[in-house]
């Protein structure tokens, strides 16, 4: 069971799991530990860095009931996805995305981020997030939408709507087509007469014809993923949104017969004086709640469409990028918004970051199931003198059934979201591995089999006296190693022959006896020092060095260092003790130099771009419209209200 819990914890550490519509990852504990003082006093830094995957003591530490209760009390947590703050990751470093203006949910398990400079990036929701370049060459992109494996980008300076085929289903793969498909494609391109038959051409001939047609295409059209959707009625397109999601692989937060539009904001807080100044991002959190971002106040708000009440849900107003509980975290110019179930994604122009705001209920539920799995088999940390309660066989079966049903529901949720009823997730689908859940069911069935054999076949009441610790893998391996003394690889028949005798030997070794084996002082075997052959010899001795001790001032310095940097000073420089991810070292962000605050993205440059015509040029910034007339050599200034 220890190995199964380690695998479950590994899934929680590697992937942003979907738990009832809420994302959950072990990095949430690292973030909450820095912002919640109660967690900092009961969680060590080594337990939240989770670098030693084989140390189940760290798992026991994060599964304390007090940790679960504090995590559940925090309504939301804000985490930085891009750039990565705690590890060195080649594809996820600061400066990879320079001016993020919009974000949307892409293929399941990924997000799409639009860079104002001319690029479209994709982030896989692994920890750390893997960032890859999807397409580039866009001209002043301002908005992004995703539908049916296609990303739609709004380009304001062209003007046009571009689309990118994420899965590559529009690209022509010649050698992957059969002869009938090749013939059909050639007829569509007028390379072959429509009345021609397949028997007139060979497969190789059709492939050569298509390759010749590809060579006639411009290189930018052949190799670029950016394709233009021309709409003549568009003058200055600034925003695009998906309007149909019936055939999508995911269920987006798009509701029928509902249109959200903001022209002039007059809403205010009912319990404060902060006014919504400059709204930018807009998304539906649910059917009756509208989510908006204010780029001047650096906050997130939720607007109730029925009562018109505005509620502050994230951001403390400071223009910087700091993680933590959603109300204490800070956002640097929040721009684009996207909602996936109950999880919010935010792009920030000033801090050049993509953030995730998620409920903590999913993480608390996973930790509670891990804690229940350990408690069922009385697994505890002896180093901390933790007491464990012994469970009966019936209680163990009941607990494991509840754990299995919880993760079964998570897998069913993923299957329903992706419309794949037979899906067996392995991690990239934002779920624990299907085989790991099957292992939980296998252990449950083994306990049921033992309980039935004791009750109906042996007819003894051993069920209430069984110590479940004896059923763990380590005990079984120790018992099996004793059986291999005679046969290196025993067969089933030999295993059955030696089972009873090996069990008797194991019991005798653990039974208190009245004699000792070669350990008594008056034993028959003589001591070397008392032997005549060695009595006149002087044995070498090694003087022990006096142990060094710390003064009170030195101890105070170490304690203050630990309090400031959340970890003790590294005392060893030994192999496997001086790695950058070891718990004895400081996190990477402690060694980073303070960075200068990034400049904000001017929003007027996004919405009103310079439009070049035959007669004049115009640009708009901060409500001032400038008109340049070449014929009269004049520049006119107009105030736009």
UniProtKB/TrEMBL annotation:
InterPro entries: 6-blade_b-propeller_TolB-like (IPR011042). It comes from the Eukaryota. This is Uncharacterized protein. The lineage of its organism: Eukaryota, Metazoa, Spiralia, Lophotrochozoa, Mollusca.
């Amino acid at each position: 069971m220890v190995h199964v819990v380690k695998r479950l914890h590994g899934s929680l550490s590697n992937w942003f799991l979907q738990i009832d519509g809420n994302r959950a990852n072990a990095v949430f504990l690292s973030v909450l530990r820095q912002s919640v003082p109660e967690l900092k006093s009961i969680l060590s830094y080594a337990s939240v860095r989770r670098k030693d995957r084989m140390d189940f003591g760290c798992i026991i530490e994060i599964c304390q009931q007090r940790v679960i209760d504090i995590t559940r009390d925090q309504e939301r947590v804000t985490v930085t996805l891009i750039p990565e703050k705690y590890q060195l990751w080649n594809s996820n470093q600061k400066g990879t995305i320079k001016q993020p203006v919009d974000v949307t949910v892409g293929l399941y398990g990924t997000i799409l981020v639009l860079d104002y400079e001319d690029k479209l990036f994709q982030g896989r929701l692994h920890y750390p997030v893997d960032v890859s370049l999807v397409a580039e060459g866009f001209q002043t992109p301002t908005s992004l939408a995703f539908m049916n494996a296609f990303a739609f980008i709004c380009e304001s300076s062209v003007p046009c709507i571009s689309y990118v085929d994420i899965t590559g289903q529009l690209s022509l793969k010649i050698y992957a087509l059969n002869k009938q498909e090749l013939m059909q494609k050639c007829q569509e391109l007028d390379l072959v007469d429509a009345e021609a038959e397949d028997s007139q051409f060979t497969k190789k001939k059709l492939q050569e014809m298509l390759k010749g047609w590809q060579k006639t295409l411009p290189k930018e059209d052949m190799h670029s993923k950016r394709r233009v959707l021309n709409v003549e009625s568009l003058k200055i397109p600034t925003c695009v949104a998906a309007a149909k999601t019936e055939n999508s692989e995911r269920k987006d937060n798009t509701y029928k017969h509902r249109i959200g539009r903001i022209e002039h904001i007059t809403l205010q807080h009912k319990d404060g004086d902060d006014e919504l100044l400059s709204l930018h991002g807009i998304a539906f959190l649910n059917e009756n709640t509208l989510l908006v971002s204010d780029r001047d106040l650096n906050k997130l708000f939720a607007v109730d469409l029925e009562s018109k009440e505005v509620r502050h849900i994230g951001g403390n107003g400071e223009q910087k990028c700091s993680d933590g509980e959603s109300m204490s975290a800070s956002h640097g110019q929040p721009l684009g918004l996207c909602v996936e179930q109950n999880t919010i994604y935010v792009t920030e122009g000033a801090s050049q970051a993509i953030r995730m705001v998620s409920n903590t209920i999913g993480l608390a539920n996973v930790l509670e199931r891990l804690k229940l799995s350990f408690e069922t088999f009385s697994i505890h940390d002896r180093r901390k003198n933790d007491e464990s309660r012994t469970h009966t066989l019936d209680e163990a079966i009941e607990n494991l059934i509840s754990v299995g049903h919880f993760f079964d529901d998570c897998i069913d949720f993923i299957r329903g979201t992706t419309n794949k009823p037979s899906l067996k997730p392995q991690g990239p689908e934002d779920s624990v591995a299907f085989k790991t859940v099957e292992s939980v069911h296998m252990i449950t069935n083994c306990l049921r089999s033992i309980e039935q054999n004791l009750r109906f076949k042996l007819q003894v009441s051993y069920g209430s006296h069984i110590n479940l610790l004896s059923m763990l893998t380590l005990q079984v391996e120790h018992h099996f190693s004793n059986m291999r003394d005679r046969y290196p690889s025993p067969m089933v028949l030999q295993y059955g022959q030696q089972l009873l005798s090996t069990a008797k030997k194991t019991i005798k070794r653990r039974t208190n006896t009245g004699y000792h084996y070669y350990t008594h002082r008056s034993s028959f075997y003589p001591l070397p020092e008392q032997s005549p052959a060695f009595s006149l010899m002087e044995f070498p001795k090694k003087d022990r060095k006096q142990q060094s001790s710390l003064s009170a001032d030195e101890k105070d310095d170490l304690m203050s260092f630990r309090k400031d940097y959340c970890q003790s000073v590294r005392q060893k420089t030994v192999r496997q003790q001086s790695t950058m991810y070891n718990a004895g070292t400081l996190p990477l962000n402690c060694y980073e130099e303070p960075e200068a605050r990034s400049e904000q993205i001017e929003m007027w440059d996004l919405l009103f771009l310079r439009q070049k015509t035959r007669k004049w040029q115009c640009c708009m910034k901060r409500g001032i419209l400038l008109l340049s007339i070449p014929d009269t050599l004049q520049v006119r200034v107009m105030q736009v209200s």
